[in-house]
Write a structure and sequence with these properties.
Elements (H helix, E strand, L loop, with lengths): L4 H4 L4 H5 L2 H25 L4 H4 L13 H27 L3 H6 L2 H15 L7 H14 L11 H13 L1 H15 L18 H26 L9 H11 L1 H12 L3 H4 L3 H27 L4 H9 L38 H15 L17 H32 L4 H5 L6
Helix pairs in contact: 3-5, 3-7, 3-10, 3-18, 5-7, 8-9, 9-11, 9-18, 10-11, 11-12, 11-13, 13-15, 15-17, 17-18
């Protein structure tokens, strides 16, 4: 960068307070706290998450519960984050030139954060961190464990990575710029660092992981079909869902580096093509969240209500949506399922609405009054946060669904053989 960077590349107020490396760190730290809350609340509901992910039980009754260990780890990584951030504010005092010059401070915290996950320190939940790293290593190449070895945990972590895809892209950008001569990682992010397509490829990796996992599950079903597995078509449909993310990423990259002579398509045509695929991906994913991941009957209930002659309602799916009371001949509220653990139907309906809303944050681009906000760092950060929050809510219902399946025997023979007695 030539000349005065503060003049040449002005920073917005948000980046002066929370530059990119700290935004990445904040979302990563938040994820640990969120997982602790997941474990804690599901524990209160008597849902045994460690059993579902095949995590070793507590060695003794005096051992801390898993959620408390997670909170302890979250506290350990939060304290240096806060100290580092306050030190950075004290040094820079909101001056653009100082913010650019002291970029090694937030980068040092990112280095410390990763170091804390690697150090075998007994007081920092060593078994949990070791299990996390082992699982991450396995799924990083699209691997997936057998059911008795923690398949569900692999799926959960891989799905979480899809929600952190943009954060991983920003992490690469931050490190790439930091290691580049004459640049600062606290400057306005250069998301073209390393080449036009490097960041899109990184963003696509989590979806590639889940795609390969789905194909592995399909091949397993074909080799050893069971009463509950069917012929494996659901795994292919799930693989298609993750594949639908690739055109969105590719077309977004082409829009950023648009050149009509390169692709032979007008800018409007490129946008409309992007719009088609982002609509397909968002609503396909929303359908899968509700109908497949959460096993809710929302869509079948809607079909039954809209086309009663073609889709006659079953005896357990026709409860009135507006009523909190389930009639005697019904087995569950409208759009839900017979076995639920959360206290009221409204919790499920709220989660469905929130999932739809956050799946469609891309719709901000459709408004000419809001489109310019998409290029602001504060907006990008909020959208990344929104996706992490959506995934956090999704985990509650996905884990609850798995618990219901295991208890009812729908998850398969392997899980039922491992089911502890008395739970």
């Amino acid at each position: 960068m030539d000349g005065d960077p503060a003049v040449e590349s002005p920073l917005d107020g948000f980046s002066l307070i929370l530059p990119l490396p700290y935004r990445i760190a904040f979302i990563l730290v938040l994820g640990v706290w969120a997982w602790g809350v997941n474990l804690h609340y599901l524990h209160l509901l008597k849902i045994d998450v460690p059993f579902l992910i095949k995590y070793p039980p507590r060695s003794s009754l005096s051992s801390l519960p898993h959620h408390q260990r997670t909170y302890a780890l979250a506290t350990t990584i939060t304290v240096p984050f806060v100290l580092s951030l306050f030190f950075f504010w004290t040094i820079t005092r909101g001056q653009p030139s100082a913010v650019l010059a002291w970029d090694f401070i937030p980068q040092s915290y990112l280095f410390l954060l990763f170091l804390l996950f690697l150090i075998p320190y007994k007081r920092l939940s060593p078994h949990g961190r070791s299990r996390f790293l082992t699982t991450l290593k396995r799924i990083s190449i699209g691997g997936i464990a057998e059911a008795q070895d923690g398949k569900f945990g692999d799926i959960l972590l891989a799905d979480v990575l899809t929600s952190y895809a943009k954060v991983l892209g920003d992490l690469f950008v931050s490190l790439c710029v930091f290691l580049s001569s004459g640049k600062s990682s606290t400057d306005k992010p250069d998301r073209g660092c390393g080449g036009q397509y490097v960041v899109p490829i990184i963003i696509s990796i989590p979806s590639m992981i889940r795609l390969r996992q789905c194909l592995i599950e399909y091949m397993r079903v074909r080799r050893n079909p069971t009463q509950h597995s069917g012929w494996g078509g659901q795994h292919l449909a799930n693989a298609l869902k993750y594949s639908s993310a690739f055109p969105v990423v590719i077309l977004s990259a082409l829009q950023r580096g648009y050149g009509p002579n390169k692709i032979g398509l007008s800018e409007t045509g490129l946008f409309r093509l992007w719009l088609f695929f982002v609509f397909l991906n968002s609503f396909y994913s929303f359908y899968w969240d509700v109908a497949k991941d959460w096993d809710l009957t929302l869509f079948s209930s809607l079909l039954s209500s809209t086309f009663p002659s073609a889709f006659p309602p079953s005896s357990d799916t026709t409860t009135n949506f507006h009523s909190n009371q389930v009639p005697p001949h019904q087995t569950h509220p409208w759009g839900l399922r017979p076995h639920t653990h959360f206290h009221t139907p409204q919790i499920y309906y709220t989660a469905i609405a929130l999932d739809l809303l956050l799946r469609c944050t891309w719709s901000l681009k459709l408004s000419p009054h809001l489109d310019h906000w998409n290029d602001l760092e504060g907006t990008i950060f909020l959208l990344e946060m929104a996706e992490v929050v959506r995934r956090w809510v999704w985990i509650f219902f996905r884990v609850e669904t798995e618990w219901v399946r295991v208890r009812s025997g729908a998850a398969g023979v392997d899980e039922m053989l491992l089911m502890p007695m008395g739970r």
